[in-house]
Known about the structure:
This protein has about 130 residues and is mainly α. The chain has helices spanning about 5-25, 35-55, 65-75, 105-125. The longest helix has 22 residues, at about 5-25.
Amino acid sequence: MKNKELENRINKIISDIEIAEEEIYRPLEDVVTLSVCYKVRNSIAEILKLFLDSKNVKYNNNNNLETLFSLCTSNVKDFDTIDISKVYCKSENNTSCNDKYCLSLNKVAECITIAENLRDIILKKLNK
């Protein structure tokens, strides 16, 4: 993977997580949890795909989060410290999750934390 492509993907992931974080800190009546959920799930998928790409591990773009995470954990034990079971709809394909988004502010906040933890692990591994 080229350095510029890697940098662009990392920046997009970081930006998407920051957008989700900013959304949950809006006044409660203005928070759109559906948007946060969607951004976070997509960020998690992109984080996992970025890691797999960096290790030249093959995956299918239609793989769900659970499958992508499993591929990552089989390559790096640091992922074992993260429980993605809290990510609502984790075993669904991102594109087929219509009406399966979490609407609880506390729940999407937990998912943001999971995305941040995954991001930190990936960045640490990519910088080695």
